[in-house]
């Protein structure tokens, strides 16, 4: 007896069920550590092994300690991280857009080799240049300073992001530039008034990644910064779980949960520009 082929409706149902199953598994993998961190931050004790995901006697005592205890430098670390993140997001995105615009719209000697250099630099992590960066910052007197850390972040993000934004600029028709030049517009006016508004989606992505990086990174601040008053959040929170403060896992969890607030705020803010940029580019003929 011949086997009946599976109907198209049944096949589509199975595919949709498989997709939802994969999404459900990924959701559990993502949300479970977050729930554990939040639940741990509400445990009144500081012992990791005595903490539970749903504490019986939950309390905000660790959040209160972070902001009110004189021994806590959390507000200073938060201010330092925001200063670094905002500087990197604004200056880094502007420099990346300038670089991408030059490589996309101009033809000059060394342009091809410059693009090859961008591709080559993306193959090597920043960690490989740590010794050289340490010596450089020490030579120019920017070691153990937020300015030195900002410069490293901005310089390290340019190759990858510039290549990304350059590809987006290449999709914008050059007839826009030529029409603007016929109307008497210069290079800066074309860049700021025509191309940048059309490139809002990709610039929003670059700005978001640039803003997030200082909140997430630990290795660079660990190498560059020495004074506790200059620490970023990742480096400062590490002191809660190292050998000297090995019992403060719940305070670490509380501090880590609060990191999500500025990142979520910036994401929601840039999402508006992302959607508006996409709709504007789709409606203009």
From TrEMBL:
It is found in: Cell membrane. It is a multi-pass membrane protein. Residues 78-270 form the ABC transmembrane type-1 domain. It comes from the Bacteria. CDD domains: TM_PBP2. Belongs to the binding-protein-dependent transport system permease family. This is Carbohydrate ABC transporter membrane protein 2 (CUT1 family).
């Amino acid at each position: 007896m011949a086997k009946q082929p599976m109907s198209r409706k049944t096949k589509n149902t199975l595919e949709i069920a498989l997709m939802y199953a994969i999404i459900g598994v990924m959701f559990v993998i993502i949300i479970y550590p977050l729930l554990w961190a939040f639940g741990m931050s509400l445990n009144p004790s500081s012992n990791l092994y005595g903490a539970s995901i749903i504490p019986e006697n939950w309390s905000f005592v660790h959040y209160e300690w972070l902001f009110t205890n004189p021994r806590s430098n959390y507000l200073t670390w938060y201010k330092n991280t925001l200063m670094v993140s905002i500087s990197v997001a604004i200056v880094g995105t502007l420099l990346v857009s300038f670089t991408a615009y030059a490589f996309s719209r101009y033809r000059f000697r060394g342009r091809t080799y410059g693009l090859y250099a961008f591709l080559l630099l993306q193959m090597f992590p920043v960690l490989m240049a740590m010794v050289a960066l340490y010596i450089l910052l020490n030579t120019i007197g920017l070691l153990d300073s937020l300015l030195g850390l900002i410069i490293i972040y901005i310089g390290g993000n340019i190759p990858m992001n510039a290549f990304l934004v350059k590809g987006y600029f290449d999709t914008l028709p050059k007839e826009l530039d030529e029409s603007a030049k016929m109307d008497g517009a210069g290079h800066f006016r074309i860049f700021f008034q025509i191309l940048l508004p059309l490139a809002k989606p990709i610039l929003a992505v670059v700005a978001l990644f640039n803003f997030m990086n200082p909140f997430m990174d630990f290795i660079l601040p660990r190498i560059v910064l020495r004074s506790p008053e200059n620490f970023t959040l990742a480096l400062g929170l590490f002191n809660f779980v190292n050998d000297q403060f090995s019992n403060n896992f719940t305070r670490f969890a509380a501090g880590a949960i609060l990191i999500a607030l500025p990142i979520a705020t910036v994401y929601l803010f840039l999402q508006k520009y992302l959607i508006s940029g996409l709709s504007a580019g789709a409606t203009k003929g």
